User: Fold this.
Amino acid sequence: MQNIQHIEGGVCAAKGFRAGGVWCGIKDGSHKPDLALIYSKTACVSAAVFTTNRVKAAPVIVTREHCKDGKIQAVIANSGFANACTGEPGLALARRMAFLIADEFTIPERNVAVASTGVIGVSLPIAAIEAGVSALADSTSADASGAESALTAIMTTDTRKKSDAVEINIHGRPVHIGAMVKGSGMIHPNMATMLCFITTDAAIEQPALDAALKDAIRASFNRLTIDGDTSTNDTVILMANGRAGNPTIALDGEDFALFSTALRALCISLVRQTARDGEGATKLIAVTVKGAEDEETAEALAKSVASSSLVKTAMFGADANWGRIVCALGYARVPFNPERVSVAFSSKAGNVSVCENGQGLSFSEENAKNILLEDEIEININIGGGASAVTVWGCDLSYDYVKINGDYRS
Amino acid sequence: MQNIQHIEGGVCAAKGFRAGGVWCGIKDGSHKPDLALIYSKTACVSAAVFTTNRVKAAPVIVTREHCKDGKIQAVIANSGFANACTGEPGLALARRMAFLIADEFTIPERNVAVASTGVIGVSLPIAAIEAGVSALADSTSADASGAESALTAIMTTDTRKKSDAVEINIHGRPVHIGAMVKGSGMIHPNMATMLCFITTDAAIEQPALDAALKDAIRASFNRLTIDGDTSTNDTVILMANGRAGNPTIALDGEDFALFSTALRALCISLVRQTARDGEGATKLIAVTVKGAEDEETAEALAKSVASSSLVKTAMFGADANWGRIVCALGYARVPFNPERVSVAFSSKAGNVSVCENGQGLSFSEENAKNILLEDEIEININIGGGASAVTVWGCDLSYDYVKINGDYRS
Assistant:
């Protein structure tokens, strides 16, 4: 995209942010990093989005409170336990985590966001966190290694480090947006055990930041599905400290459009990385539905296909079983004309049309297999109606998904 | 249940029905039976229910037409190909199948129902069916072996023969209802690649038959989920030939209640067998939600749990990971108070409470594991509100589900 450069540095790409991660003992025995911190040296405006699950983890409840005034300066996050289904004691522990960081940096407790990911229903070992906070603060740095070490500390079944950063130019000033994301299971449209922290040095008004985040999430994380499960802990936090020195971005206008486009591109990059790292996934599947009357219809159809266990297993088996795709369109509960549907598969290895006007085309199974053996597959569907198109991202369903989740706790 | 005896004989348990199955060559090479017939020697009243998928297979479209007048005397069904996404030529083939049976038995073509199951989007080899119809008619018998041979001919990835029959007594006359069902993948509430044929010798008015069938399906097949996929071909047909000689059952009244209860018990038996035979399933999972304000709420919550890939893989791994259950309740999009939720597991090996008032209880992991290692598991959830309760049936998600569906066509 014009004017948007992908750069290194993750959440530390933006000026004035530090990040780090340590092992404090939450993940007993494994010595894998389990406590992460991101903070801005100066005050930030912020925007945030949380899980739609009716069962909300304690850190979600606390962080939502803290985010209400649009000011967050630091995020503390742990892996190992989700601090969900833990009642009043869980809330107290989440508040305690915010307090520890506030105390360490002498900032208001309500400017600290808290996030947790891991097993549900188990109490957090707060003593370990208390003992580890100083080391955590000391571990931070303002470079890529700090960003990576924070990212490592929030990973659970993730197998890849998922982060990205972009640079745009606003009236001659370089503006940076960087992000890291955690999540590979319990992910479905409308968020998941997905923690995403985004930092920017843009100077931007809070309502503009809020609008840009909501728009970006609608077109990225809300179009991601791994396994149909929406978690109790999903959190996206975006902090802007204004250190780029650009003229402050207000809602609407060209600068806002550029910032929003860059943020959306960043989020889509993270979503593609997350789908690719779905639990047990061997492939990224991008399902595009074109020719819809409106985006809602296109999105519902694309999600139905991307969520279908039968489509996902067919993709795992590199089987061009397009009947399952048409079937999944059919139960999406939105109107379309089955007799105008066309389906094609594409990847680096080529493109093959398999269905037109709702009926099968003859095609080379060998060619189709070669296309589907790649690790990034596009399923392109045209329903032959209007002009709207939407892409949804997901992954295949493999033996390893079952293996990982059949024995997660032990 | 009082007054309802489970008996042998399947669809041939009711007087005056014959059934059979042959290999006619649709399943090329394998020589597995692929063509089935059920017919009544005399005219029947009938009721039927079809898939809610917007993409409907040709036999569904044709059979729905034929069922409109409530008279079906014979069912022809094939496995191998679903005759779905086959356009006008597919419709002509489905009509041709009905014609062949009508011609063989000299009955009206519109009194013949047609059903297909198998791969979507491939044309039916009608010549094989034409050549096989006489042998099919000759193969039928009025005993259990005929019923079993018809059942065998409609199986695809099914590993078990799923059938049952019940006897009730209406004013001194024994009345029988028998059924067979096919289906183990593409099954989800609101029907699936699920073909179910039910016969009864009850004398019953068509509106009563229709009401009894709809009620039974609501409480059985529509509460079954295997993999979240709803197929293009689902069909349930119930035929009543009146040969039991009972006083004709009308809508409402004691006789109707008894018939309905028996039909519902029969359908629940089939649903339990089907869940147990879900593709790759190692366990039957019955999820009961109690304490709801109404049945709709209880059903939405129970379905959300039974459909969760994370719950299903945990059950496969015999892991009492109740957090995933509470999480699945939370994204069901119906209101309940998370702080009043309790969860318990039970099986032949015992019972264990794992969550009360939304928080974890301490329990013996070893005991829980033993309970979950059984092949029939109950997940009992109480949301602590009203008096409504609903049970939904499903199965675990195993390696074999992936194996079966990663390579179905080849």
